[in-house]
Design goal:
The protein has a five-stranded mixed beta sheet. It has a single domain, classed as Transcription Regulator spoIIAA. It has four helices and five strands. By secondary structure, the chain is of the alpha/beta class. About 40% of the residues lie in helices and about 30% in strands. Helix 1 runs parallel beside helix 2.
């Protein structure tokens, strides 16, 4: 079964809340949202993996594409939190974690990045 995602904006940070099994149908949606908001000037993006069970290689590639588009742009930031052990290796192996700031939890990300968690 495919996963899903939702998003919110808090303190100029676009937060992707991912859930379940993340594959192409989900990653295509977050790539489209990324591009729309990037083109409108949004430059800080947080991927919340709190409810992710696994991410497949196609979705990893789409995440890499998103982050690659922002690398080197002034005042851009890419963040990720609560990565499950099953996902950590893949994110690390393709180099994504070299370009993202990693947080252990959404709470830690909120504290460090200065936004409030609203459920």
């Amino acid at each position: 079964m495919s996963g899903k995602f939702s998003y919110k904006i808090a303190s100029n940070i676009f937060i992707f809340s991912l859930e379940g099994y993340i594959e192409k149908s989900v990653s295509e949606l977050f790539v489209a949202e990324f591009r729309k908001h990037w083109n409108n000037g949004m430059r800080h993006f947080l991927f919340d993996f709190t409810k992710v069970t696994i991410i497949n290689s196609v979705a990893l590639g789409d995440m890499l594409e998103v982050v690659s588009e922002g690398i080197g742009e002034s005042d851009s930031g890419f963040y990720i939190c609560a990565i499950p052990e099953k996902c950590h290796w893949g994110l690390s192996a393709i180099g994504l974690l070299n370009y993202m700031t990693e947080y252990d939890s959404l709470k830690q990300a909120a504290q460090e990045l200065g936004f409030n968690i609203v459920e």
